[in-house]
Amino acid sequence: MKAFIAISEDNGTESKIDTRFGRGNYFMVYDMENDSIINVEENRFKNEGHGVGIKTAGIAVEKGCTLVIGAQPGPKAEQVFKEGSVEIFVITDGTVNDAVRKYKEK
Amino acid sequence: MKIAVISGKGGTGKTYFSTSLAMSLEEADFFDLDVEEPNGYIFIKPVISDEVQYILPVPEIDEDRCTFCNKCAESCAYNALSILPQLQKALFFPELCHSCGVCSFVCPVDEALIEVDKDIGVIRRGKFSRGNFIEGKLNIGEPSGVPLISGIMKDHLNTERTVIIDSPPGTSCPVVESIKKADYVIIVTEPTPFGLSDMKLVIEIVKDLGKRTGVVINKDRGDSKDTEEFLRKCGIPVIFRIPYSLEIQKSYSKGIPLIDTVPGIGKKLKRLYEDISNG
Predict the structure, then answer these.
(1) CATH code for the structural domain at A2-105
(2) What is the pLDDT of residues B212-259, one digit of tens each?
(3) Which of the residues A5, A84, B8, B64 has the least number of beta carbons within 10 Å of its own beta carbon?
(4) Mutating which of B76, B93, B100 best tests the A interface, going by the most A Cβ atoms within 10 A?
(5) Structural domains in chain B (count)
(6) Do residue B79 and residue A48 have CB atoms under 8 angstroms apart?
(7) How far apart are CA B105 and CA B158, in angstroms?
């Protein structure tokens, strides 16, 4: 399973979870089975005026992620995730490592 | 002469002032562009003659024809479309759409993306004792009054006539839209910290748009020093005052206009209009 995680810095699995979903600084795609980072990219939509969550959610679905870990996505992004049957796991602080561990413990 | 009445802060008396200003003139049209909650009719008491829905075009995607090429979503400046090729899904978010039409323009597939009508509100037209009355009323839940306001100004403004515009509160796009075509902007304020703070914000808008402006102090108890001092520094005149009085409040709460409450105020309002017109 691939997880989509919005992070505030690019610092591997020690990266901090961004407090915002659509406007997070970076996006990480994380392999939950092998506990490894698939890729990290900068959020190029970050400063757009409207509908950033929709764009970000579209990218997550496009990348084949079926899980989103991090800040609560907005209602429009949630709608995109609903269409894509993507699970949302909300966590608002800590690092990628913390968040993944909490998800697995749940 | 087109005069728009704005305030920044809500509840300072835009409608109360603008309706009586219109009624003090021999001939004037009254435009209620406070489309989220138009209430000028309470004082103006117009006879409404027609009511038409205001329609905007929005996209509708036929997922059977759509090739999910994503051109529409890429072109949309407001991110109102989300195309999900893997899922063969096209999502549309009407609250973000500005009805610009670019999606239907760029769509390469026949009939995959068509424009359909979306009803965003209603325009009511009628007459009152001094001229034409017109108001826009936005449907509940609509995110922006701007299209309705610009539609009214484009289709119904008679440039030959005197028009008094009751604008929306605040300092955002609907306010800007409602004062764009005005020759003069009246700011109605109240002598409270909130009134002053929001007045400062609208003054910036009016300055940016290069409009002539003057301020009406409502609920004036002779304690408006902060407001007056600020205005003096800006070089903006105080053009009218409405006193703070229980009498006025009682009358207001019954829907009686200012002009029928304070004896002689109609003449003062008319003179104010003449002063503004003469520059």
Answers:
(1) 3.30.420.130
(2) 999 999 999 988 999 999 999 999 999 999 999 999 999 999 999 999
(3) B64
(4) B93
(5) 2
(6) yes
(7) 33
